[in-house]
Amino acid sequence: MNLFDVYPLFPITPVQAKGSWIWDDKGVKYLDLYGGHAVISIGHTHPHYVQAVTEQLHKIAFYSNSVQNPLQEQLAEKLGALSGYPDYQLFLCNSGAEANENALKIASFQTGRKKVIAFKKAFHGRTSGAVAATDNPKIVSPFNNGHEVVFLPLNDETALVDTLDETVAAVIIEGIQGVGGIQVPEDSFLQLLERQCQQHGALLILDEIQSGYGRTGRFFAHQHAGIRPDLITMAKGMGNGFPVGGVLINSRIPAWSGMLGTTFGGNYLACVASLAVLEVIESERLMENAGSQGAWCIAALKQQKSLLDVRGRGLMIGFDLPETQKTVRNNLLMQHHIFTGEAKPNAIRLLPSLAVSREELELFMAALADEIIGV
Ligand SMILES: Cc1ncc(COP(=O)(O)O)c(C=O)c1O
Predict the structure, then answer these.
(1) 232 by DSSP, 3-state: which?
(2) Residues spanned by CATH 3.90.1150.10 within the chain?
(3) Dist. CA 340–CA 349, nearest whole Å
(4) Does 1 score more than 60 pLDDT?
(5) What does CATH list as the number for 14-38+285-374?
(6) Residues 260-286: pLDDT tens digits?
(7) Which fold is adopted by the domain 47-283?
């Protein structure tokens, strides 16, 4: 049987990883500054994480959500404390798209409305509602495009005020746009969004799937703007590679039995993986590390005169390369053995583990300087 051929693949086969490093089947060592799409939050194969998942595997790996699972409550407790949302409710699921799909559904249940406002260049996942709120017509099938979604330019206050009214169920926005090329919403725009949603009875959904979990130096990127959304979605860094997602839900939104559901969401292994991630973020002060290493890296990149528009917060960093330098990302990987991400048309994205060191970032800066001069 062939695999359904949807992914363009690098000719690299990773077989082992530790911290910010990956080894392939030929013994070649790579510096990972991308974390497999921002997933590796505490570093590959962190010993505390490996121990927690291994021990749980020997006890019980799975039962359905029809029995008591105290690990879910422990996770909710720890997540509430570390994120600054102890008064919110937690719904656990398995991926980013599923988290957004459920958040959109909750907003629609709560308001009785169905129109959604999303933003140009947004990416929210590939399930029905999430992909309809994603600004990429190529991946929206005719089956998905029946949803009522309006796309507005990011940071356009006038367009927002003109469009948001009593027919809107939800506004969905990324804490920082990832796939769109690290586009940062202005703090004042997020604050206006919060006020406008409250005024018109629409729910504000913050998609923190890529920008959350300590990556920007705060637990969630929107916390830099001092807002408190109605719904916050998470995945990626939450499980450091174990598939897990979640929705934080304001306590004024009531749940009813059967309102949402998933077979695998909140399973034992996902809970211990997520708990281990939070424990390491706390004990190794990884949010502080993300803030300070990220600030250093952004400042260092800004000194490279041939890079255009260096942007981001903490360890969510993007910059554009001139048209003539389209091969830089590939060369970084194939010649310098450094994984980075891309964004169309010619941007590079850095999403390293929150534990990345100054020395590792310096290695990258030297390789980048080499490439830029070499082109
Ligand atoms: C901001 C954002 N939302 C949602 C998703 C979808 O997450 P998943 O691929 O886990 O469904 C992604 C994935 O890249 C993302 O970056």
Answers:
(1) strand
(2) 14-38+285-374
(3) 6
(4) yes
(5) 3.90.1150.10
(6) 999 999 999 999 999 999 999 999 999
(7) Aspartate Aminotransferase; domain 2 (3.40.640)
Return all residues near 67 (Cβ < 8 A) that are at least 6 apart.
Answer: none
Select from 7, 101, 124, 216 the residue to mutate for testing ligand 1; criterion: most ligand atoms less than 8 Å from CB. Answer: 124
- How wide is the angle at C-alpha 223 spanned by C-alphas 221 and 224, nearest 5°? 80
Q: How is 248-303 classified by DSSP, letter by letter?
A: EE-TTS---TTSS--SSTT-HHHHHHHHHHHHHHHHTTHHHHHHHHHHHHHHHHHT
To the question of pTM greater than 0.90 for the whole model, the response is yes
Nearest residue CA, atom 8 of ligand 1?
Answer: 96
CB 274 within 8 A of CB 252: no
Say if CB 307 and CB 346 are below 8 A apart. no
Q: Kindly give the number of the ligand 1 atom that is closest to the alpha carbon of 100.
A: 4
- How many residues does this entry show for the chain? 375
